[in-house]
Amino acid sequence: MDSEKLILFTEYMENGSIREKIVDNPLKEATALKYTFQTTQGLHFLHHYKEGRIVHRDIKCDNLLLTSNDDVKLADFGLAHKLGIDNESTMMSQFAPSGFAGTVAHAAPQVLFGTPHSCRADIW
Questions:
Q1: Does the reported pTM lie above 0.90?
Q2: Which InterPro entries match (predicted)?
């Protein structure tokens, strides 16, 4: 197995994504705050992981899944990248001819244009 590949196994998220939840009904303020807090906790873990900082690069409601207890879990790490020693990513996507793969509407300009970026790209 290639040591540069990361494989994640997660539990089944029976409540779907936040996107699915908000299609018919807006979130109550307390629920929105809970989801925001839990999302930032997950990002903080990734951005300060002891083995090397990880930038997700595709944070959106479709990639925030809900457990049976309605807790948020980050999903879809297909574009995630471990940052280099300088804590910047110099990797351009190998999936799109333009150098970009992901969701344009949610991408930080640095990710979109393939320029070096840091964990701050997840907060864009």
A1: no
A2: Kinase-like_dom_sf, MAP_kinase_kinase_kinase, Prot_kinase_dom, Ser/Thr_kinase_AS
Cα–Cα distances (Å) from 115 to 15, 22, 28, 102, 104, in that order, read: 36, 33, 37, 15, 15
Whole-number Å distance between alpha carbons of 111 and 33: 27
Separation CA 8–CA 78 (nearest Å): 10
**Can you list the domains of the chain with their CATH numbers?**
18-123 (1.10.510.10)
| Residues β-bridged to residue 74 | 64
Is position 58 annotated as part of the catalytic site?
Answer: yes
Strands (E), the chain: 54-55, 64-66, 72-74, 81-82
**pLDDT tens digit sequence for 76-103:** 888 788 876 555 554 444 344 455 556 7
Q: Which residue in the list 24, 58, 70, 122 is annotated as catalytic?
A: 58
- Tell me the pLDDT tens digit for each residue of 20-31: 999 989 999 999
Closest CA to 46 of 73, 19, 16: 73
**Environment class of 73 (CB within 10 Å of its CB; exposed 0-12, middle 13-18, buried 19+):** middle
